[in-house]
Amino acid sequence: MALRKIGDLYPNYKEDIFGGDDIKNFSVYSDNDKKIGSVQDLLVDEGGRFRYLVINTGFLGLGKKVLLPVGSAKIDYSRERVYASGFTKEQAENLPEYNDNMTVDYDYEERVRHSYRRPTTATAGVAGTATSAYDRSSYSYDRDPELYQMSDREHGRFGQYQNRLMSFKDRFRFGNRTGNNHLYKIGDLYPNYKEDIFDDDDIKGYSVYSDTDERVGGVYDILVDGTGYFRYFVVNTGFLGIGKKILLPIGRTRIDRDRNRIYAAGFTKEQAENLPEYNDDMTVDYDYEERVRNSYRRPTTATAGVAGTAASAYDRDADLYNMNEQNHQQLKLYEERLIANKHRFNTGTVTVGKRVETDTARVSVPVEKERVVIERKEPTSTTPVNSDATAFKEGEVARMEVYEETADVQKQAYVREEVNIRKETDRETVEMQDTVRREELEVDADGNPIIRSDSENRRDRI
After folding, report:
1. Under a CB-based contact definition with an 8 Å cutoff, are residues 181 and 175 in contact?
2. Domain 3-171 - what CATH class?
3. Cβ–Cβ under 8 Å, residues 269 and 237
4. pLDDT of residue 390
5. What is the residue extent of each domain of the chain?
6. Which runs of E-coded beta strand occur in 228-318?
7. Distance of alpha carbon 331 from alpha carbon 323, whole angstroms
8. Phi, psi of 395 (to 5 degrees)
9. H or E segment at 155?
10. What are the C-alpha distances in Å from 417 to residues 52, 414, 420?
11. pLDDT digits (tens, 9 = 90+) for 19-48
């Protein structure tokens, strides 16, 4: 599985994954408290698992860089230190050197692992010797758990950061505009491929046959890499597009445009059923491709030079990916057009949401209250009066109802703001230079015939 620097795979790792608590620049010490260097970077695999700390053994970042497997590290966050278990500066000097521009392939990793394996476990889970005589295509990091497994006691929240990174796998960045090994469906990379690249002659829907003229399925899609090279046909082995999908390397095909057919060299429907299944939502990573390649490799080249990067695999398995004039003439032309055309990449996703903010609103509501006013006055007249039935009796002599108003506030929703969202396309012109091909007519004449060339329609007549 290919390794990448964490910042290349997930640029916002420091904020989103580490919460601003970056391990880069932590000092690296041996068990006996002797400084070895400092952490310069972190290498992770395509699934987001932490594999190596890149250690700079020099002063102020100027020195030899080496790899330290994460399982061999003990992290002290309080002192911003990494302790390398059973390791010294002298041993660091004997490690294979790392540089930022190199590809960390299987062979390089084996040299690193061999330097860290303990004598009692140097061959644990490894068929052959400690110098990696086992099948590189089947190597798993689980075979060296002491080098790669982390624990809460030794690594603290570092393991939590790894789990968080793995949960963001759908946001990983596999390369850049100038080229990457991530695979895309051709329509995702270049939406107008049918008109601009294939001249409306879409190869999707072509039937796929074996050499013995047995129908295997139909072409469902085409996978291309980030630079535009065709890598696989996605073949649906079912009926009416409903069935198992598999990958067919471009180099193992022969295209018959007259019959709208693709012939898969040395392939049968039974073999197709044994291939790893493909689905539209999966990420085609190195491990999956290796399973596909192992199914197609011929016995004489089944394990030849299968290293740990997708870039080298396409070159080392040239018979699976290279096209030739005889079998792929038109497809090679389409590929050259795609590579020459501008790339349309998904540079990011913009999510527009809304949140609810709660405020306390105060309103003034006038209300009325009734009150009873009792006034007692001294009489101004001394004239005798006739008493009524209530005179000189105890108890209630008058009743009056008193009312008051209360505020009744109701909330109602109104449109506060209208938001219109649209995409705008900015156009720019870039200059590219590449080698293109064209066909020229060559006329061989026997004897001295009269030849007239019509430059207008570019035909030669004899």
Report:
1. yes
2. alpha beta
3. yes
4. 65
5. 3-171, 183-340
6. 230-236, 245-249, 253-256, 261-264
7. 8
8. 115, -170
9. helix 152-155
10. 51, 9, 10
11. 877 888 899 998 888 898 999 999 998 788
